[in-house]
């Protein structure tokens, strides 16, 4: 073999290596959405990703993979190669899989590409409920123990966390928790009078409130909410809520740990640009979401704090299958 | 008027047409569902304007609900859950060489049902929606009990075998993590059981694979020659079924508008209703009765309009497809909810117009090409059986992109074959799976709401007019199926009822 040929082969090999590194993505990226089509995770991801595709110069094929509170999708991505061609598009739920006994993996197996936005939790009541504010609700519960029907969505869902928060802050509230499949069906039931109060994400309730089909009671934030400025905030009602707030369900894009740094960088840059798109920001504001658009260390810190606070809250309420301690989730410092 | 938008823009008209055409074929293939097609369209139409995107989705929805009847009639394999009842009388007709006629009646009646659904949506949406949300958990539970009582209608032959099949269906529906508490049920600690058993996989297996296995027994049997001269039903025929179809369409609209139930339950309830009110069918039910086609097909297409009612007036989806369409509206910058009708009345009227147009296209595409379709039944079995198996596998995989579902499908296919062999009806199994969660979840919600006090639970039923009517309906239907009733009737009226 001539030297020339070897030289050419080496050069070809080198250029090929350089090319793969530079040209990510060289093929379609699979985006696995943890929740079903039309749900809030789905709509957020389908709204932001086209802008990320533009920034990335590639195609992201999104696919809904539902089941087991999103664990099926998470495990699918964990089992895929850490090459950045399979990314997870999920919500907050995996942070509770371990303590709820739903799975052995959570976002600690992933590198956050972008935590896009956070939802705000609030209490809404049926229009015929005999109270109009938070203090009135507490007084009604005290006067009528075991009568108020509070909507729920199963252990680990937003209503269970909010209920645990209220029980911790206000002392045990004697209410009936009626479980539904999700906040959509529960809010329908609220309007029909099957339940009296529902802890829901602001985005899901906002249109019903605007139309006067349900009344807002309390917003779980530390600052006045710009969408509903007249509604009382939790820390004004009881300062003890400050320990747990701000809290809310969130949406993020994740790549498996071990994905090459340059790939993570490319993805992070693309989604950061996409999250700044005005159209997307307007869309999120319309649904009452708070934009976060964070990645790297900042995102990891957020995840840790979220997991510690929520897992211990649920554990103290006796809703967990295993103590957070078993998984090295430290109790949050106040 | 925004209702006319669709008619004045050829591009939108074309999209509705294309959607309807595609919908008919998507609906006809078991496993390819409208829900799936519409969710794929969400990404596909992301960059479009909202009207074209909605046009395409509405077309696919309308066409797809109708398309499910095609394979039900021709191959005894319902293309969608809402066509299960259609197979019961449609396939016997095809076996007698009347497939063309069956499809003709189905098409015209689907059009009629669709029309009623759209009409109710257009003129009475707010009222129907207000009525629909008053349904309490106990009402959904009673509705599910009413549904369970259909087992009698769906079992030709032994009622005991029908009840067994129905109970099996309910058990299948309960497998997996309980959505209310996340407790595992019947999972045997297996990961693959945690997500439950896909109901579509059960349906495809029970109807598709078991049908293929059944046909394999007489693989050389000559196919029935199909009569294709009288496809479009005469005016007289349509007129004859008009009263029945008005009743079954109403069932369709209401069941479709309820946020917890959809076209599948509507079609089964309508079938049962037809069986009750038709005193002397020309051909017995289960052997190719025209009424058995008219009822489910009017009901499931009427349910389309019904499902849009809570979606447009309250932002609450009436079924899985409208749930995805709500997501689509959101992505296109609209805020679907109770204010949509106030802020964007054009959108409401546009959808009404698009549905109307899709319904017309459905009639046109449905009535043309029937001759070619009926040839499918005349194909040699050595070609059709592998084709059925292939479609079943693709369909089962496509539901969740899961190979586990394919195994379930094949397993239930073999099981279904033996069930047929020993005279166990398959319809009740699917009925059980459909109703399992509706019954279970709502019973628990109802009794939890009453602090687990049976006294308070019955008090609630008696004090609510809606619950009381449903409760009385359950009692009457139940009693009317017992020997006591037949005996009493004989004594009173002096003749035995059929």
Automatic annotation (TrEMBL), chain A:
<keyword id="KW-0732">Signal</keyword>
<feature type="signal peptide">
    <location>
        <begin position="1"/>
        <end position="21"/>
    </location>
</feature>
<protein>
    <submittedName>
        <fullName>Tripartite-type tricarboxylate transporter receptor subunit TctC</fullName>
    </submittedName>
</protein>
<dbReference type="InterPro" id="IPR005064">
    <property type="entry name" value="BUG"/>
</dbReference>
<keyword id="KW-0675">Receptor</keyword>
<comment type="similarity">
    <text>Belongs to the UPF0065 (bug) family.</text>
</comment>
<dbReference type="InterPro" id="IPR042100">
    <property type="entry name" value="Bug_dom1"/>
</dbReference>
<dbReference type="Pfam" id="PF03401">
    <property type="entry name" value="TctC"/>
</dbReference>
Automatic annotation (TrEMBL), chain B:
<feature type="transmembrane region" description="Helical">
    <location>
        <begin position="460"/>
        <end position="479"/>
    </location>
</feature>
<feature type="domain" description="DUF112">
    <location>
        <begin position="13"/>
        <end position="431"/>
    </location>
</feature>
<feature type="transmembrane region" description="Helical">
    <location>
        <begin position="382"/>
        <end position="399"/>
    </location>
</feature>
<feature type="transmembrane region" description="Helical">
    <location>
        <begin position="140"/>
        <end position="172"/>
    </location>
</feature>
<feature type="transmembrane region" description="Helical">
    <location>
        <begin position="316"/>
        <end position="335"/>
    </location>
</feature>
<feature type="transmembrane region" description="Helical">
    <location>
        <begin position="192"/>
        <end position="213"/>
    </location>
</feature>
<feature type="transmembrane region" description="Helical">
    <location>
        <begin position="12"/>
        <end position="32"/>
    </location>
</feature>
<feature type="transmembrane region" description="Helical">
    <location>
        <begin position="419"/>
        <end position="439"/>
    </location>
</feature>
<keyword id="KW-0472">Membrane</keyword>
<keyword id="KW-1133">Transmembrane helix</keyword>
<protein>
    <submittedName>
        <fullName>Putative tricarboxylic transport membrane protein</fullName>
    </submittedName>
</protein>
<feature type="transmembrane region" description="Helical">
    <location>
        <begin position="103"/>
        <end position="128"/>
    </location>
</feature>
<feature type="transmembrane region" description="Helical">
    <location>
        <begin position="38"/>
        <end position="61"/>
    </location>
</feature>
<keyword id="KW-0812">Transmembrane</keyword>
<dbReference type="InterPro" id="IPR002823">
    <property type="entry name" value="DUF112_TM"/>
</dbReference>
<feature type="transmembrane region" description="Helical">
    <location>
        <begin position="73"/>
        <end position="91"/>
    </location>
</feature>
<feature type="transmembrane region" description="Helical">
    <location>
        <begin position="347"/>
        <end position="370"/>
    </location>
</feature>
<dbReference type="Pfam" id="PF01970">
    <property type="entry name" value="TctA"/>
</dbReference>
